[in-house]
Amino acid sequence: MRRFSCRIYGVLREGDKVLLARSRFGASTFINFPGGDIEIEEAPGDALRREFREETGLEIRPVRTLYANQEAHLSTAAPIQIVSVYWLVERVSGDLRLAGNGDDVLELFWRDVKDLPLEGMFPAELEFCRQLPGLLDQ
């Protein structure tokens, strides 16, 4: 039986930079945007605000959808297909925890949108990052 993991991520932009996370899953580390799984019976916007708060310490407001994966991405950790949606978000309040959340986020950092660390990303994020500069200009 095939299963899906629906994920939602926020792109917080300040000038030409976007906020990224260095995260951990098991023994693997990777680069992604703050966000994560949408729980069963959880509205996607609520999931985005919850995940962003848990990972960054910030309260955010979703502004607009930027992108939803168009390619099929299979997880390397489990027999599931990953479907990711990316939103542009605005900071509302809170204190940014650059040192991580003491759990799955090891650190947060800013990076120029034209110089993203692609070598540390999973295929779903790579697909999105190829489109990101043009999406932010819309």
Describe the structure.
This protein is of the alpha+beta class and 138 residues long. It has one domain: Nucleoside Triphosphate Pyrophosphohydrolase, CATH 3.90.79.10. 20% of the residues lie in helices and 47% in strands. The chain contains two helices and eight strands, in the order ββββαββββα. The chain has helices at residues 44-56, 123-136, and strands spanning 3-14, 17-25, 28-32, 35-37, 58-68, 73-74, 80-94, 105-112. Strands 1, 2, 3, 4, 5, 6, 7 and 8 form an eight-stranded mixed sheet that branches. A hairpin with a 2-residue loop joins strand 2 (17-25) and strand 3 (28-32). The longest helix is centred in the last third of the chain and has 14 residues, at 123-136. The protein is globular, with a radius of gyration of 14 Å.
**What is the mean pLDDT?**
93
Give the CATH class.
Answer: Alpha Beta
Alpha-carbon distance between the termini?
A: 39 Å
Strand content: over 45%
- Find the CATH topology: Nucleoside Triphosphate Pyrophosphohydrolase
Count of helical stretches:
2
Q: What count of structural domains?
A: 1
Write the CATH homologous superfamily.
Nucleoside Triphosphate Pyrophosphohydrolase
Oligomer: single chain
SSE succession: EEEEHEEEEH
Rg on CA atoms, Å: 14 Å
Broad structural category: alpha+beta
Quick overview of this protein structure:
This protein has helices at about 45-55, 125-135; strands spanning about 5-15, 15-25, 30, 35, 60-70, 75, 80-95, 105-110.
